């Protein structure tokens, strides 16, 4: 494939070019795509405003790049392989031709239900082929999709629908995940009672569970597509028109609706996909993420399809029916590139090794990791037992905000180093700085920022450009701040050390501490609370909560359960606390800020090095908290 770098030397050359003349570099890359009209300028940017425009003036539709342009060359090649939760259910294979037909058909159904260019459409669906079809159908007609992970609660859904003012919701009756058959439509029903902007909902039948249909609002998917034409002209979009909104947790307040636009996102996801995974024609590529997260958007749907790849979509979980499921699926579909998260690797590592060895994994060429730092033990296990020591591991560092992979080795092309994401992709200019903003050179450790725009950087936070500026461009002038800490070795390899803000990554999910604390504080027995993360064997981090109760309220496990139920209901079960300690006070600075550093150390049982606590407003509370620590 013409976008691929094939040697370390070539990487160095390309990287140099991309930094010396970004416009020329990305202009050349963009020539590999189908545009209805070429751009006037490749890049215009100002990180102070901030305003970033890639391929300004160009016109395109991303689905013509993901579908139409492949019809002649690989129309009969499989585009999507779908593997069901239950191994006895037949897998589904859609060729590029079939996918094109289904996308066009559903795009017409959307139009019939009143959808038009610029509308925001919420997608709350389990991992079924129709989920991918839904994204592409929105893109086909120029509607902006906002996917919400179908494990989030009704109230999380309400907030996201209202924030984006969605007029249509695409959903299903229910879904399957492991041993669970869960309801989806009933959660949507609960949410739609509080979302006045929603006019229509289209419901896919997946589990056959009983649902109530609201006359005039709800329509079955199969009825919506019946008699729909399978031809649908792709809407002409500006390169900078919105493609989608995807919410990510912030350290404070409500989730941020990150906005990605059509042109740059397409160019960068395909470019990074082909280079990082070194995908070759006829390879079978599998990313285990859910399409509810950015990884699924960029590396199940858009990047692979824009590259003409065969991409696997998996409905289930790694532990069902047993801990060998991933490996069974790899063997069944002869997967060549396998991309998963450290939390899954750590969980699977605990299983008897026979669950791995009984499956033929010889098709594998590349292994990938994403979502959090991968610890050395997990890296080694992955390398030895899954890759059999001869599959390069790409440890890909990136974010919802970056749209695509930023730092990673290119499989088998650039050097890898265990636990290091390694080198930046061409076009990516990482920089390490001190807390005060001084630039650090050479082998060092600091805060990770990016010095120059790349094509898939999020352009704004939906409806709140001020927050976008404050969150990403205010910490260090003229740079995009990632919120992560990192260290750099003498060869320029980066190792991400984790968040430096109050976001905790639990099983690969970003959880802001503030929203969880707010929900706990809503409980009538609670005065105040503080959440910190502590290391967890499988989840990477788990949540530890310190909770102050009103005078006279008895400490009880019932209360702990109530607090967790409240969190599960308002945010989702992933945000539940592993440990809840009732305390009489929280260590605070004189300006009233909770000293989370101390709470983190206590939760991690690292109490020998608490540092200076004499400057606290209430140092005496520390001994009490240590005493009552839950081990
Ligand atoms: C973390 C996921 C270390 C990081 C694509 C980042 C990682 C946050 C890695 C973004 C990695 C992601 N090594 N840390 N390879 N990949 N992270 O928005 O803290 O869900 O800021 O995007 O995950 O998470 P998000």
CATH topology label of the domain at 504-628: GMP Synthetase, Chain A, domain 3
Distinct helical segment count: 20
Shape: globular
Helical content (DSSP H or I, runs of 4+) = 25-40%
Would you mind describing this structure in some detail?
The chain is an alpha/beta fold. The protein has a domain of 125 residues: GMP Synthetase, Chain A, domain 3 (2-Layer Sandwich). Helix content is 31%, strand content 25%. It has 20 helices and 31 strands. Helix 18 links the parallel strand 30 and strand 31. Helix 5 crosses helix 6 and helix 10 crosses helix 11. It is globular and about 75 Å long. The mean pLDDT is 95. The site of 5'-O-[(S)-ethoxy(hydroxy)phosphoryl]adenosine has 23 residues, from helix 11, strand 19, strand 20, strand 25 and strand 26.
